[in-house]
């Protein structure tokens, strides 16, 4: 990797050496490889910024970079970026160096405002979308789905949930409906529950033959003619702006789902920490700390 290469070229080359797509992230945890297109994209962007720093300070290139330079970069970055961005920078650099780097705390206060929508707001947004995107919005809210997961939805009897996880028997407690599965981050397949009213609408869109779709560089096999991925997410944000005058993004639906489920489970007699763990599994996290960000 010659030192005269652009920052983008150096970052792309470094990430390419570590890509191992097609291997489940959960089965190959901590192997130093990259198992998802999204992670590869994030690491490439992070390393590009790191190379630009190296070049601006005339410190060489990615091949010659030292741990001391990496630590100084992260220290400098901590004053200007949020903790989430700083963590991605650190993870990308330690992947490249092949060593563990200490966590650096961001000095920038992370905004802690909620991203959730009320049910009334969601209904208004859905009413301002096309039929297929409106249905996708209703399903995403009802089941707490990510944008790309809408493209992967299938009845539970057609695809089994991932077996390397121990699933909580209290998932979906207090709700009635039919179970489907979706494929989330790292290839994790989990069950979700849809209300029977939405099941009827969804099944009316069943494709005669599955179709291949590509979203953000990833290929999916879609079984229903509903919105999903980036195009649906953009539709949601545009409709939110038109109807409400603001947008918290389609991901805000997962915040709404998590908050609603926490209230339901606690009303049903479940202790807070147990409810939080249950919701974490329902949205495909398993990490209660991550789910905590949805409950603000």
Helix content: 40-55%
Q: Which CATH class of the largest domain is shown?
A: Mainly Alpha
**How is the main sheet built?**
3 strands, antiparallel
Overall geometry: globular
List low-confidence stretches: none
* CATH fold node name of the largest domain: hpI Integrase, Chain A
What gap, in angstroms, lies between the N and C termini?
A: 45 Å
Count of spatially separate domains? 2
Q: What are the secondary-structure elements, in order, as H or E? A: HHHHHHEEEHEEHHHH
Supply the helix-strand structural class: mainly alpha
Strand order of the largest sheet: 1-2-3
Report on this structure.
It is a single chain. Helix content is 45%, strand content 10%. It is mainly alpha-helical. The protein has 2 domains: 91 residues, Orthogonal Bundle (DNA polymerase, domain 1), CATH 1.10.150; 177 residues, Intergrase catalytic core (hpI Integrase, Chain A), CATH 1.10.443.10. A 3-stranded antiparallel sheet has the order 1-2-3. The chain has a two-stranded antiparallel ribbon with strand order 4-5. A hairpin with a 2-residue loop joins strand 4 and strand 5. Helix 1 crosses helix 2. It is globular, with a radius of gyration of 21 Å.
């Amino acid at each position: 990797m010659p030192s005269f290469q652009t920052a983008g070229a150096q970052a792309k080359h470094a990430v390419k050496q570590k890509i191992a797509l097609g291997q489940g992230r959960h089965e190959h945890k901590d192997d130093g490889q990259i198992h998802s297109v999204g992670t590869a994209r994030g690491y490439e962007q992070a390393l590009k910024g790191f190379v630009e720093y190296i070049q601006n300070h005339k410190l060489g290139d990615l091949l010659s970079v030292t741990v001391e330079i990496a630590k100084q970069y992260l220290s400098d970055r901590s004053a200007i970026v949020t903790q989430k961005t700083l963590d991605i920078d650190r993870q990308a650099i330690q992947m490249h160096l092949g060593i563990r780097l200490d966590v650096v705390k961001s000095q920038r206060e992370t905004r802690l405002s909620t991203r959730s929508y009320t049910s009334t707001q969601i209904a208004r947004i859905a009413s301002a979308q096309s039929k297929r995107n409106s249905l996708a919005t209703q399903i995403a809210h009802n089941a707490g789905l990510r944008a790309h997961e809408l493209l992967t939805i299938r009845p539970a009897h057609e695809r089994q949930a991932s077996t390397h996880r121990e699933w909580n028997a209290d998932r979906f407690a207090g709700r009635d409906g039919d179970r489907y599965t979706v494929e989330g981050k790292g290839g994790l397949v989990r069950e979700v529950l849809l209300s029977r009213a939405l099941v009827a609408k969804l099944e009316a869109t069943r494709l005669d033959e599955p179709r291949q779709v590509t979203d953000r560089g990833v290929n999916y096999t879609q079984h229903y003619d509903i919105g999903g991925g980036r195009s649906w997410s953009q539709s949601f944000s545009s409709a939110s702006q038109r109807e409400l005058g603001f947008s918290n993004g389609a991901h805000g639906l997962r915040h709404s789902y998590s908050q609603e489920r926490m209230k339901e489970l606690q009303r049903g007699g479940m202790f807070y920490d147990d409810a939080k763990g249950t919701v974490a599994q329902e949205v495909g996290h398993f990490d209660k700390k991550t789910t905590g960000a949805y409950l603000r």
